[in-house]
Amino acid sequence: MRIFYSTLILLVSYNNIFSYADSNLQIDKSHIISIDTTAKVGHTMLTDSLAVKDSLLQKVRVDTLLPLQYNGLIRNYQHGVVIKKDEINQLDYRYTGNIFSGLPFGYLKNLGWLGQPNEIILYGFGFGNISFLQDGIPINNRIQNSSDANQIQSEYIDSVEILPLPVGFFYETFNNSVVVNFITRDRISPRPYTRIRFYQAPEEEGFIDAVFSAYLMSRLNLSFEITNNTVDPGYENSNYSGWKASSKLHYMPYNWLNIIGSYSYVKSEVHLNGGVDYEWIKLNYPSNEISNTLYNSLEAPVIYTDKYQKKLQHNFELKILGKILEQSPTDLNIYYQQQLIEFRQNEKNDLITQGDIPSVFHDNKYNSFGVSLRQSLSLNLLQFDLLTNYENIKYTADVLKTNVTKSLFSLGGRAGISLLDGIINPSTFIKYLKYSGDSFFGWGTDINIKMTSNFSFYSGYSNYKKPLNIIEEQYIIPSTSSPAQNITTAQAAVKFLHDNIIAEASVFRFSNDNSLKPVIDKQNDSLIIDKVGFYNTERLDLTGINVSLSFKIWKILLTNNTSYYTFKDDAQKNSVPEFTSTGGIYFIDTLFNTNLKLKTGFNYYAYGMRDFAVYDFEKSISAKYYVDNITSIPVLINNEKSLPTFQVDFFLAGQIQKSAIVYFVFENLFDQKYYLVPYYPMFGRAIRFGLAWEFLD
Label partner for 626 (CA 20 to 30 A): which of 32, 423, 454, 486? Predict the structure, then answer.
């Protein structure tokens, strides 16, 4: 942390330097602009041009700067979940993953401790089925086909998009069903900008983040961000430390052409104890002491005392934004990504406490080079989107049975029409994907209807084939009839907006003829061996219903977000909680002559019954089944289900003079003893506080 505080001192020094440089720039009136960063129109931003108004002076041509910015995947009339930075600032979040807990069909499989690779669930799906994009570029780990939200800088986010289920596969490279797009901050301001956020919590848990942005030259803007978060071990072998950094150069040679170069860096180490060894506690403690021991971090034994993984990531991107025609923005991306995960288990070969656990020394690395192009076009009533992607991936990973190089190419088009002055907006989309020599097709259609000024309706349907990722290819059982997954999705939603009410109801249907079922290949009488040995296939039919409500009465805000899931096959019923419900009741007001914007109240989190599951963190897979030694067929690891849980937190966020935000959270007010994933105990009663401060200079 000492290094980071030194960095903050340098930031302040740089801020003064760039402030001086900016004052020099003001001498040349042709370079002075005033930009309202909230006034986006298409790819442009509205500007105030300053000109010298004096008849005795020679007229000077004004250099009006109109930066182009990436605007995301969801148009303003289209259905989808979009959460902006201002909304995120008012949420109670430790890291990026917490943002999804309160979103429609969202759930975080929290493993209890900071830095753990928690599984984000959306529409009932998690690892291997969600594509995470950053400014439209895929950032999933190419070996695991998943992403760890600990690697995504929460303060770097400008907004988050979650696409409707029928449309998701169209906008990403690998035909994953669910797509999340993080739009990063690209602040263009004539004055240097700095933002600092930190928080402190129990177990020496700390987080600090610093953002800086300034002009290097009149048409060249630099921004960078540095993040550090750490936690000491509460339970044995649960510590985490992570550094993240990102930088962006935004060059604006013309108002119709911008070039953005960006780089991101991640270095982290997380220790993976596998949760509390509940079976050992049951064998060695009387029944009346089991619960107390389970939730006692000093006494509870853990499964793995020597297991961890280190990550090192480098991502480079060149984004070219063009707007030769006013209604035809172009987004061209060239990117290179490299990630290395050093996975270690029983590294010290401890025969006394870890004798049944095999030693693992795996280095799993990939290098990915890609090019993507999105060309949009609006012609009166017609809208078109053309997307094409190429990617080449080189795998050098010990977890794989063989190291290979794979390539993929996709081409898709979407056409829509606006009818009755924008009231009805239907569209149709098709996509072709060629991966590893095989072809995969998909198509879909949807419609957005603005029924009244308050009511809107959405409906969509799609059918597509999804290939197996590299892990699935090498671990699926040879007798599987078809390597492709045939997926059909449908969704309908209605939304109501009024002065003090936002209400939405949504239902989706998902089916997969060849859904993969990971199975632990049990090697001895202990389930300590948590490695997925192979995949079976089965048909999956899932239906989900969500109702979300935000209702303000006077200065009291009530929120609720509830999802319920049903499965055709009872054996699949609790792969996600039977229901999730989050929300709160808050007092919201502006006080002290508009100097303080206050939001304070109570958050609640309620989750239904859940199945027992084991995580294979190296492959990023959650498994419910293992091979029975007698019958040699997959059976449930544990027939017991986790009981429904409920937690209440006190939350306070106050924004002071639009420049500082103070956070205070009293977590788990009633000190509930529970876990979301067996057996990773959640935090008990605790206090967390923090501050975010931004300023121009």
Answer: 486
Q: What is the dihedral of CA 642, 644, 648, 653, to 10 degrees?
A: 80
pLDDT at 399: 93
Q: Which residues contact 112 (CB under 8 A, 6 or more apart)?
A: 675, 676, 677, 680, 681, 682, 683
Q: Residue 475's Cα: distance from chain center in Å?
A: 27
Cα 431 vs. chain centroid, distance in angstroms? 24
Return the H-helix or E-strand segment holding 201: strand 193-201
| Whole-number pLDDT of residue 2 | 44
For residue 625, whether the previous peptide bond is cis, meaning omega lies within 30 degrees of 0, is no
The answer to whether the beta carbons of residues 124 and 109 sit under 8 Å apart is: no
The Cα 88–Cα 95 span in angstroms is 11
DSSP notation for 449-492: E--SSSEEEEEEEEEEEE---HHHHHHB-TT-S-SSEEEEEEEE
Paired tokens of 688:
């967390």
476 close to 527: Cβ distance less than 8 angstroms: no
**Residue 442, pLDDT score:** 97
Query: How are beta strands 485-497 and 501-520 bridged, if at all?
Result: antiparallel
Inter-residue contact 175 to 160 (CB < 8 Å): no
Decide the pairing of beta strands 579-591 and 360-379: unpaired
Calpha distance 635→688 (Å, rounded): 42
Cα distances (Å, whole numbers) of residue 363 to 330, 340, 500: 39, 7, 53
Within a domain: residue 405?
A: yes
CATH number at residue 499: 2.40.170.20
Question: Is 39 part of a structural domain of the chain?
Answer: no
Cβ contact 4:241 at 8 Å: no
Tokens 């270095």 appear where?
267
- In this prediction, the residues of the chain whose per-residue pLDDT falls under 50 are 1-56, 524-527
Q: Is position 660 within any domain? A: yes
Which positions ≥6 away from 54 have C-beta within 8 Å? none
CA distance 222 to 568: 53
**Cβ(329)–Cβ(321) below 8 Å:** yes
User: What pTM did the predictor assign?
Assistant: 0.89
- The whole domain housing 187 covers 81-696
Provide the sign of the torsion angle of the four alpha carbons 474, 475, 478, 480, taken in this order.
negative
Cα–Cα distance between 333 and 315 in angstroms, integer? Answer: 13
Residue type, 380: N
Q: What's the pLDDT tens digit per position in 60-119?
A: 565 678 899 998 999 888 999 999 998 998 889 999 999 999 999 999 999 998 899 999
Query: Closest by alpha carbon to 90, among 591, 665, 672, 613?
Result: 665
Number of domains in the chain: 1
Print burial letters for 304-320: b (CB count within 10 Å at least 16), e (below 16). Answer: bbbbbbebebebebebe
Question: What's the per-residue H, E or C state across 116-184?
Answer: CCCEEEECCECCCCEEEEECCEECCECCCCECCHHHCCHHHEEEEEECCCCCHHHHCCCCCCEEEEEEE
pLDDT at 26: 38
The residue behind tokens 């630099």 is: 222
Paired tokens of 529: 């061996």
In a domain, 362, yes or no: yes
> For residues 146 and 678, what is the distance between their CA atoms, to the nearest angstrom?
21
Q: Taking a C-beta distance cutoff of 8 angstroms, is the pair 621, 127 a contact? A: yes
Q: How far apart are CA 297 and CA 673, in angstroms?
A: 12
